[in-house]
Amino acid sequence: MPSRVLVFTWLVFLFGHYGWAIWPIPRSLLTGTSPVKLSPDFVINLQGLSNPPADLASAISRTQSRLHSDSLERLVLGRGSGDAQAVEGAHLLSSLTASLQHGSPVRSIAEETTLAFDDKSESYELFIPDDRAVATLVANSTLGLLRGLTTFEQLWYDYKGTKYTLEAPIQIHDEPAFPHRGFSFDTSRNFFPVADIHRTLDAMSWVKLSILYWHIIDSQSFPLEVGAFPELSQKGAYSPEEIYTREDVNNIVAYANERGIDVIMELDTPGHTTAISAAHPEHIACAAKSPWSKYASEPPAGQLRIASPSTLSFARTLFSSVASALPGTMMSSGGDEVNLPCWEEDEETMADLVQRNITIADALNEFVQTVQGVIKEHGKTPFIKSDMVLTHKVPVVNDTVVVVWQTSEDAAAVANISLRFIHQPSNYFYLDCGAGEWLGNDILGNSWCDPFKTWQRAYSFDPYANLTTDQYALVLGGQMPLWSEQSSAENLDPIVWPRLAAGAEVFWTGSTLPDGSPRLGMNATSGTNALARLHELRYRLVDRGVKAIALQPKWCVLRPGECDLDA
Amino acid sequence: MPSRVLVFTWLVFLFGHYGWAIWPIPRSLLTGTSPVKLSPDFVINLQGLSNPPADLASAISRTQSRLHSDSLERLVLGRGSGDAQAVEGAHLLSSLTASLQHGSPVRSIAEETTLAFDDKSESYELFIPDDRAVATLVANSTLGLLRGLTTFEQLWYDYKGTKYTLEAPIQIHDEPAFPHRGFSFDTSRNFFPVADIHRTLDAMSWVKLSILYWHIIDSQSFPLEVGAFPELSQKGAYSPEEIYTREDVNNIVAYANERGIDVIMELDTPGHTTAISAAHPEHIACAAKSPWSKYASEPPAGQLRIASPSTLSFARTLFSSVASALPGTMMSSGGDEVNLPCWEEDEETMADLVQRNITIADALNEFVQTVQGVIKEHGKTPFIKSDMVLTHKVPVVNDTVVVVWQTSEDAAAVANISLRFIHQPSNYFYLDCGAGEWLGNDILGNSWCDPFKTWQRAYSFDPYANLTTDQYALVLGGQMPLWSEQSSAENLDPIVWPRLAAGAEVFWTGSTLPDGSPRLGMNATSGTNALARLHELRYRLVDRGVKAIALQPKWCVLRPGECDLDA
């Protein structure tokens, strides 16, 4: 490490606004005070890889392209003009040399991305000198190189076409605190075109998110083309145009994997399945039964007939058909919000229970173990929603991952039964909260999870809250969900961005900042710094075509700290 | 009226979902049950006007174009396919004949739009026969014809390129309950490009809104090019690209006026003026003074020096320069949220007060009467914010219109001092509420006007609440505002639409539905009907390129009533 790397960034932040636009903030970051600019013929060279994986070459090409097209000026008064003189005399960087550490396996980014968490490395080291022409990026995986390229892209501001930083030399050692950093995306309540999912994946990759948790089907529509049951989407999708064909799914999964994002598909069962009744009414109890509020958490009611051997067989084939078509080592059977009256008042279910001499609880256990068994047969780790293990006490296999969603308080309860889990608490992370009631005739109603979850709220989340230190290893990370009752392609970007980036930093950087200080909390300075960096990310997202919302008046953006609560 | 017009629409609504996509609902609407489709060579003919105003010809041309390009299928299960047979055998409509009533003056739409409320007519009569080839539209103004064309466009569904209705004959007599039906648009906290304002004006015209209340400047930026003081925008705008030049303003006003929308520009004074200090620091007290919370309702602090003769002269010239460049008969001097400590601690202001031997209250009265006097000198009616007359008891001239904003409760207080007013209550109409606190370091804060104002909330507003019948005439209408601290072009459409349409119907259709029943309230059927019509409007907006949010899952949209609270 060069001796001129003098200033620890966190100290710099205490004394003024420096324009770091890196989000999430690296685990270790040292910066200097020298200006460096990219040479007009700046190139990224891959060293020691005579035949690099195609998706790595593509990633480098995308970075090259964005280094050229990004036009974010520094968010200070006067914008880039104040830096003109420094830029003029800045040291010239001619290239970035990217290489794998000696002895590292050479695999595609997609292959690295779909490895099990324990086998996956996202770490990288990046160095931007202020006295030499070549920057260096080293990692022990192509996925790590991708993460490093993503950081490299965020270092540069534009001023009249010149790309520069004022804070060389820059030394970064980085790796995520948690492997699971996700976005849970509901494409059933309303449909989202493939192009919108692509754009979302791009933006996710820019903040180093690692998981698209795809809640692809629900009671309202069944947009997934299933090889074994094409009739499910033919009859259960909103329209022929609102189906993810097998080609679409392959395309989306490949697009994600090449960008460092693994896809966990959730087939939410046995509740949230009414849309199956369009093609297979024989498998659904209480389908669209009225009043829905007695039989479901939202309209329409409908659950798989868990006691029916025929339905069990259908579910087994459904999961097998979907699992066999997906790469990756994880898949979810969902399991939230099952409703007992739906089954208790269903003649067929009651007849099955009597005939087989079992209870609803027995049938639920059998159902969950069946579908989770299919997931495991396909070499994947099963995910399940927390109410299934906490409320319904369904026994699950040891390596199951629990999605803790009802409240952040549930995390400790899941830890106490020694299951691994991810955080998705409705009281911190739900992107859809606060938009008002969507049910008809509820004139003054608000959303069930009011209020709106601000980026600050999400950012203040502590992944280790209420856990003992020996339970820390159970935390795999977390994800922020968008439930789409009131969302569609029209508001996707503004409802997701930049708030989703708050979750990205929580789970990349961890429960504290690199210097050990709280990420947010009542620490005014760190709060302002996060906001300043998040503004930069937001403006960069907009610059790249993602319609992220404004977090403050631009007056405040250009004057960090002056719009604080007590400024 | 033909005898086959049998069914009063409101009764139809009681028995099933009919696909009326008319929003706002006309004051009188009779419908039949016959299918009618537009001939492939359908034309709109203007009768009795050999040399029609250019903006009327353009409006007809836009309607023709939208009749062709609109592709909204009926929002029912199966969409248009269920109507195929009816469409096949439908009666063919070859033309719409539009004409002015005998003796009506022939003026451009823009001229009609900018008339004083008392001189303005927006009424029209529209008849779609089921047994003849020609529909008729009659009005006594070109503005009325525009309103009728707007309704005509909403009557038609698309099925494979054929445009049809199932409910001919259709007889409509329509006119607004209130002349002022507005959108208040803040373009200072964040800037909005002209193209976004154009698109917003288009959508406003489609729901017959009549007023763009343009809150163009504020403390954060001064994007308005002022003839007398070009330095205000040169130094006070966020950037040279974020200025509304005089050409832009003329363009926006003309674009609005041709679409039936008058523009009321608000120069919010004497508070909310910090941005003036960039060019004229001598006129601003407590500019960006810390802590802002002591001197202003939000950062940055700053108010005009109301006691300074030089500042009074500046304000007079500012208002005169802006007023003289604008058509229309209304303009606002704002006046909300003035802060006394800002002046009390300002040396210059205190010196002026002492020298002139007046109080702050005297100076405030003088300031308001000065700027309102300039507005009146230019033949315009002055608007003012309600706290200026209720809190500060500033005497205003009789024809002043008060913008009631703090709470709906204030309307009665304004009525009690016999001033005319418009409704803009924060507890019903603020589009920005509920998005969380935007101040830095307020981690768990929510917006001051939480919760989110749903369309239902806005729609449930009663313009006559708490008024005596002889005060009804004081109500000119109302408007829904977007304050843009957390908004920009990126989320403009989804935060505004379709919620703004709720206000449009409240003030077009009035305090009750045409049959006298409450517009909303706990009446399940009318609530559902409004939602069904609002879905249709929302889908039509999206079809026309306005990114309006989804109000419900599409499953609910296609099944009116099934997602009601107690369905």
Automatic annotation (TrEMBL), chains A, B:
InterPro entries: Beta_hexosaminidase_sua/sub (IPR025705), GH (IPR017853), Glyco_hydro_20_cat (IPR015883), Hex-like_dom2 (IPR029018), HEX_eukaryotic_N (IPR029019). Residues 22-155 form the Beta-hexosaminidase eukaryotic type N-terminal domain. Residues 178-510 form the Glycoside hydrolase family 20 catalytic domain. It comes from Trametes coccinea (strain BRFM310). Belongs to the glycosyl hydrolase 20 family. This is Beta-hexosaminidase. Keywords: Glycoprotein, Glycosidase, Hydrolase, Signal. SUPFAM superfamilies: (Trans)glycosidases, beta-N-acetylhexosaminidase-like domain. It is an enzyme of class 3 (hydrolase). The active site is at E337. Its EC number is 3.2.1.52.
